[in-house]
Amino acid sequence: MSAFPRTRLRRLRRTGALRDLVRETTLAPSDLVLPLFVEEGLEGRTPIGSMPGVDRHGLDSVVREAGEAHALGIPAVILFGIPAAKDADGTGAWDDEGAVQLAVRAITAAHPELLVLTDVCLCEYTDHGHCGRLRDDGSVDNDATLELLGRTAVSHARAGAAAVAPSDMMDGRVGAIREALDDEGFADTPIIAYSAKFASAFYGPFREAAGSTPAFGDRRSYQMDPANGDEALREVLLDVGEGADIVMVKPAVPYLDVLWRVKQATRLPVAAYHVGGEYVMIKAAAATGHLDERTAVLETLTAIRRAGADIVITYHAKDAAQWLQ
């Protein structure tokens, strides 16, 4: 390579058209997935205090919101359910007439070209807020939880979910869900595995939104230590071996190094979840005038794509899609 002055990298940065032509990473509405919270029995929508611009939706409202996302070029939504009642086992998770199941049917009927993905976990449905069935000592019983997750995934697939996304971080859950889906005739339903899900401080706003804060203890015994990158790859590769079709890293920005390593190691489609805490940091800084929201959001989402994400799940999806258009 010639040295300066013959080599001048600024030559390719001078005009917008030329900059676009040599851009290495693209960001488009088709890369995004919008998370939606649907609450059983709710009429209309209600704001979530910890997440400005994000609401809990009733059935009619979630159909409208999904339609608006689709009109902006966003190809998929992912649903999180809030039941009317909770119990120790989270039985509402696999209720065929539950909030998510009803929403899947309603959205797919109204917007048949929109992909409706579903989060598969029990934390929104249990009265203790943990992601599985508890033992007498209060710890989560990994193996007993697997059957419940399988039931939930089958119920979502029966309702018409385009893919199911287990987020519980139980060992062996991808294989258990794959077997349950296959046994019930849903061999073509993909699994998007939350494979590297870290025990993160950035989940606080989501837990308020979904009503899933643990009543005691924390989730560090099953979610990953933020210090461990090699273990993240082990988790991902185990999920791939159990039949995951897409793997996910969550959160996104604090774990871009993990995201890159996962993409290089698997060459599978990789998703990244830009979580509630990441969302509200930008919102808060923009509200005080410390940064420009549009510029910060698009830069952040582009960085997630550059690190290896084929799919970005983000609460900024609708705004980003409008800005990109």
TrEMBL record:
One of its GO terms (biological process) is protoporphyrinogen IX biosynthetic process. It comes from Baekduia soli. Belongs to the ALAD family. Pathway: Porphyrin-containing compound metabolism; protoporphyrin-IX biosynthesis; coproporphyrinogen-III from 5-aminolevulinate: step 1/4. This is Delta-aminolevulinic acid dehydratase. Keywords: Heme biosynthesis, Lyase, Magnesium, Metal-binding, Porphyrin biosynthesis, Zinc. It is an enzyme of class 4 (lyase). Pfam families: ALAD (PF00490). It catalyses: 2 5-aminolevulinate = porphobilinogen + 2 H2O + H(+). The active site is at K197, K250. Mg(2+) binds at E235. Gene3D superfamilies: Aldolase class I. Zn(2+) binds at C121, C123, C131. PANTHER family: DELTA-AMINOLEVULINIC ACID DEHYDRATASE. Its EC number is 4.2.1.24. Catalyzes an early step in the biosynthesis of tetrapyrroles. Binds two molecules of 5-aminolevulinate per subunit, each at a distinct site, and catalyzes their condensation to form porphobilinogen. One of its GO terms (molecular function) is zinc ion binding. Homooctamer. The gene is hemB. GO terms for cellular component: cytosol.
